[in-house]
Amino acid sequence: MGTIRKQSIINTVFSYLGIALGFVYLILLLPAALGKEELGLTRFILSVATLLGTLFPAGLNSFVLRFFPQFRDATGGHRGFIRLVGLLALGGFLFMCLLLWVLRQPLRDWYSGSALLLEYGYLVIPMAFAIGMFTVFNAYAMSLFRSSAGVFLNDVFIRVLLVVIALLHLNGAISFQWFLYTSVAAYLLLFVLLLVYIVSVDRGLRTAIDWAYIRQSDPRRFITYLAYIAPASVASMALRQIDTAMLGSNLSGADAMEGVAVFSLAYTLSIVIDTPAGALSRITDAKIADAIHRKDHDFTARVYSASVRLLTVIGGILLVGVLINLPNLWKIMADDYSSGTFVVYILGISAFVNMATGVNGSLLSLSDHFRSVSLLLLVLIVLSVVLNAMLIPAYGIRGAAVASAAAMITYNLCKSWIVWREFGVQPLGRPLLLVVLLGAACLGLNLLLPVLANPYADTAFRSLVILVLYTLACWGLGLIPEWDELRQTLRKRMGRA
Questions:
Q1: CA distances from residue 200 to 74, 143, 193, 442, 445 in whole angstroms, order as listed
Q2: CA-to-CA distance for 340 and 267, rounded, in angstroms?
Q3: Secondary structure of the chain in HEC code, one letter for each residue
Q4: Structure-derived torsion over alpha carbons of residues 251, 252, 255, 261, reported in degrees to the nearest 10
């Protein structure tokens, strides 16, 4: 557990450094450098590329985490496992390209409302390749218990590159066309660097595939798992990206890309809230998979319970922090994006629910209960599409926010119920109740604080006051016992105990 906490802290630091860079990039630089339609196009390309980058690997990232412990053999290059997975991912990408070529005309008709999208939409393909392959190979790095490199590349390095590209465009050094080209190239470079890192620390890519070992390992289990987890992986990502993809279609009318721009900014703010869940998952997934392989059920239960408590506490203060500073954010932006306020509230609550339910998805998808999650996701993706199709034409970005939140909250509640039924642990308890009460008290206190004229100073002032009070309350209520462990560790190292 100590190693998990240490790596989780490192990953969280990288994640929030990436969030800070992402804030500079998306909230400050892009609105100043791009018009709303251009900004909407960039976010649309990224959203669809992320969706396709989940589609063509067909759940291989989960497959790696689930079955790598069975192939683990450092001296033997893990029997060429990563070569096998890489070939499968490449085959999936080629099949996806063929499918997109066949459907090219219906897709052009669906998105005919945006001239920019018709001109540059093809950039989705190379970006999807980079994102999908990075995801698969990063899962392999996680299985090697070397997750921090991937987190640094994906959360920090790529955002540094994007900030530089945005500054070049803002200062007129490159055109909008080259802004798009270099942004795609940045994601391709990200994948290349991860490959270089993996080759430097592991022999897997230099080892031939051990087909004999695969045949004697009952490959039907592999095929069955992928048959369930592939659509589940696509559906899971679709729950997060389908709203943006549908907002960019003719459902939104002539201002489709502007709606995508506002929605994407609001969605980015909600990501701030559940970022620690991803950071923790990058560490716990490989540990959980290994524990399941060893049938260490006590360990998996402890990890889940600890994740619920820790993520609930962190999610509470992050949700409060985003909501109390929202008015200042709209003031400092180059254009008016305040129409996204409702979206931030709705998606923020959804993100907190995701945090408060812990790493339930990892626990299920990496265990023998992956079938339940897969079937649940297929039902929910249909629900999400139906809700978006009904609500976007009538309510625009607000309708998309409600559809997205309804699907995600339902998904997390259902997963938590399955975890409770199968593992005997669930997220409801004293920490959640206390955090909800603390959050409500902090929001009420925020209304009583004086408003400073400078939005930056006002943000710093109210954030500091709320953070200190929330932290002291959590400490007094015993919600973060890790603090006592850290204090005792420091005392020992200083020779005081």
A1: 13, 16, 11, 48, 52
A2: 9
A3: CHHHHHHHHHHHHHHHHHHHHHHHHHHHHHHHHCCHHHHHHHHHHHHHHHHHHHHCCCCHHHHHHHHHHHHCCHHHHHHHHHHHHHHHHHHHHHHHHHHHHHCHHHHHHHCCCCHHHHHHHHHHHHHHHHHHHHHHHHHHHHHCCCHHHHHHHHHHHHHHHHHHHHHHHHCCCCCHHHHHHHHHHHHHHHHHHHHHHHHHHCCHHHCCCCHHHHHHCCHHHHHHHHHHHHHHHHHHHHHHHHHHHHHCCHHHHHHHHHHHHHHHHHHHHHHHHHHHHHHHHHHHHHHHHHHHHCCCHHHHHHHHHHHHHHHHHHHHHHHHHHHHCHHHHHHHCCCCCHHHHHHHHHHHHHHHHHHHCCCHHHHHHCCCCHHHHHHHHHHHHHHHHHHHHHHHHHHCHHHHHHHHHHHHHHHHHHHHHHHHHHHCCCCCCHHHHHHHHHHHHHHHHHHHCCCCCCHHHHHHHHHHHHHHHHHHHHHHCCCCCHHHHHHHHHHHHCCCC
A4: -120
Q: What percentage of the chain reaches a pLDDT higher than 70?
A: 75
- pLDDT tens-digit profile of 291-332? 766 766 677 777 777 777 777 888 888 888 888 888 888 887
pLDDT digits (tens, 9 = 90+) for 226-237: 766 666 666 666
- pLDDT, residue 254, reads 47
Segment 238-259 shows an average pLDDT of 60
Question: Domain segments of the chain: what residues?
Answer: 2-428
User: What's the sign of the alpha-carbon dihedral 270, 273, 275, 277?
Assistant: negative
Q: CA 268, CA 53: separation in Å to the nearest integer?
A: 19
Q: Are 236 and 377 in contact (CB under 8 A)?
A: yes
Q: Per-residue pLDDT tens for 80-127?
A: 788 888 888 888 899 988 988 888 787 777 666 666 667 777 888 899
Of 28-42, 223-237, 380-394, which gets the smallest average pLDDT? 223-237
Alpha carbons 262 and 340: distance in angstroms, whole number: 6
Q: What pLDDT is recorded for position 181? A: 92
Q: Is 200 exposed, middle or buried (0-12, 13-18, 19+ CB in 10 A)?
A: exposed
Q: In 3D, which of 145, 155, 153, 144 has the Cα closest to residue 194?
A: 153
CA distances from 116 to 29, 33, 52, 143, 294 (A): 20, 16, 20, 41, 52
Taking residues 3-13, report their average pLDDT. Answer: 54
Q: What is the pLDDT of residues 411-429, one digit of tens each?
A: 888 888 887 777 776 667 7
